[in-house]
User: Fold this.
Amino acid sequence: MILLTRRATFSAAHYYFNPAWSQEQNERVFGRCANLNGHGHNYTLEVTVTGSVDPVSGFVVDLKWLKDVIEREVLDNYDHRHLNLEVPEFASTIPTTENIAIAVWNRLQAPVTAAGGASLSRVRVYETPDIFAEYRGE
Amino acid sequence: MILLTRRATFSAAHYYFNPAWSQEQNERVFGRCANLNGHGHNYTLEVTVTGSVDPVSGFVVDLKWLKDVIEREVLDNYDHRHLNLEVPEFASTIPTTENIAIAVWNRLQAPVTAAGGASLSRVRVYETPDIFAEYRGE
Amino acid sequence: MILLTRRATFSAAHYYFNPAWSQEQNERVFGRCANLNGHGHNYTLEVTVTGSVDPVSGFVVDLKWLKDVIEREVLDNYDHRHLNLEVPEFASTIPTTENIAIAVWNRLQAPVTAAGGASLSRVRVYETPDIFAEYRGE
Amino acid sequence: MILLTRRATFSAAHYYFNPAWSQEQNERVFGRCANLNGHGHNYTLEVTVTGSVDPVSGFVVDLKWLKDVIEREVLDNYDHRHLNLEVPEFASTIPTTENIAIAVWNRLQAPVTAAGGASLSRVRVYETPDIFAEYRGE
Amino acid sequence: MILLTRRATFSAAHYYFNPAWSQEQNERVFGRCANLNGHGHNYTLEVTVTGSVDPVSGFVVDLKWLKDVIEREVLDNYDHRHLNLEVPEFASTIPTTENIAIAVWNRLQAPVTAAGGASLSRVRVYETPDIFAEYRGE
Amino acid sequence: MILLTRRATFSAAHYYFNPAWSQEQNERVFGRCANLNGHGHNYTLEVTVTGSVDPVSGFVVDLKWLKDVIEREVLDNYDHRHLNLEVPEFASTIPTTENIAIAVWNRLQAPVTAAGGASLSRVRVYETPDIFAEYRGE
Assistant:
């Protein structure tokens, strides 16, 4: 079994705001992230699949295929978007780094599984080089 | 003469949109950056001052002072903000990487000059690790 | 369950020296690190906690809180210090990267556990970009 | 138990080509990597060993020894070489990132085990900063 | 005047060999780089143009256009190629980092100049993160 | 003319202390750096030489030779040393990043000039990834 990882990046805007709370409570919990004008990040995504190496090709999966899946399922929907306003899974879920990792997992698991040969093992999302969340599907 | 550089980072949202143009023309020139919901970046800033080394302290300038100037003049106004909506110099100027470099220069030149001992030499702004603009005041 | 990581840095001096050994044996085992004048590094620390995501805040833990804990428990005691001479746990334990990882774990486990909601999962310490140690508490 | 990692780099040429296939099939599966003139990379290798910390030295293993083992077993054979043409394990196995990770594991496991005190835990190979494979020996 | 830089990467094979010299002399001057099987690198390229900022668009040049020029003129010819065997300017010139920087300048200067509005200012080529050459056209 | 740069690293301890001042004044000016137990950094050094490209070798200078000069003149004297206590030029000059850049220039200029063919152009010293000084000899 080999773990194979492909990194990708996207740039997006977001804010942290719970409409059930007052403005004061949002600012106390979320600090400057509660600014409804939004701010943004260059996110880095690491998608890891696991499987055995095909003895003929030397591949766990074709990295070109994996890149296309990540672009179609994630980057086309997240890159240069406002996560709260334009991405359905964040309409009522706050797009924290943790929730983005879960959402990317949910977008990728079915197409990776459907391809056969490998399974999705890990999704890591860096909001900045100093903050990252990792989800393994359980 | 020594060049001394301090790096800093901020996260902000922006969009590229010229209200004198049609939506179509904005999208043709600015592509996905024309999305008025905004997107964002982790910007990295490199501020370089130049001067002679004080023989007593070994400093061109006190880096703690330079850090404070950058925070007060730039980060407090840009970090976790929407550049187009909240930063005066981008109310009618598009916040491209080039214009951000000029704006940071304009914010820093007076306080650096006023302190004496060193002059502002260079401002470099990275929008992503792959794109950066540099302004030297002329 | 999500793994959430916060990175931090500190700069410190240290040396490797076992007083029960002769100078020659110290130099044979520890090489240039046995120099009692000390040398130093910019250490990078990655602290990982694990827990479930709070559905209201979207957080595993508040990263601002985690940053404060790391600063109070680790950075305030290690940064700009001589590890052998000023940090109690290295008075008679050699501050190798391995031992620093264990010591950071020991400093953080109680306050992270006391806060509830998440547990300390992993501490990784980079002595240089090319050398790092990781401890998981067992 | 501590995980201790040492990073190393090497520069090598390779191509992806299965002689049992036609030129067309090689190009369809391997794209530009099928070019028999070869291309190359700066590979980054992370070798992780695991063990308990020696209470006297503070070491899991001596990192100088680990560096020497990696140089003798891997770098002396891979660096500035053409992997397909000069490295025996790639004479009939395609040197994908996955297969390089397995080959490095196979080269290192015996000498690390023979030294006692620690076992080989993980080999990670970066072909570029955006693509890496990891093998744990099973 | 603003300096605007775009980074790009390519992976290629090369060797250093002067056919007018004996094998021994090649190995004495070029060391392991004289291996005619070739080796390779992930090259990083920084292309800097200079000009004034268009007050309407906020651009020195359109970075999408600059990216396309770099891809068409450089990457399509260098990426996943053997520089000595497949790139005309290196048929009889050794593809050192210095000569690659000059060659990239020569490929880019005419199309950048022809576009008007900005001039090519600097080409920097990294062979590894630790070695880079820079050419400014004179 | 080409600028050719080689990067190197060293780890050292230092403190900032002016013996002509009181302890209070040292702490006011130098903050935590005034701690006489010392602290330390992983310094990164970039040494740039400039010259024309030898048409036979494709070299401005032989990078192996440049590496050896840097090791002999700088790293052998600075790495794993206490700069204040063990390096003559810092016996009475505070080893700030600025002064280290000047000292490295002074150590390298004669041997680089003596070799002929290229001149020393620039020395850049990073104390951390966020702070660097650059000296050009004038």
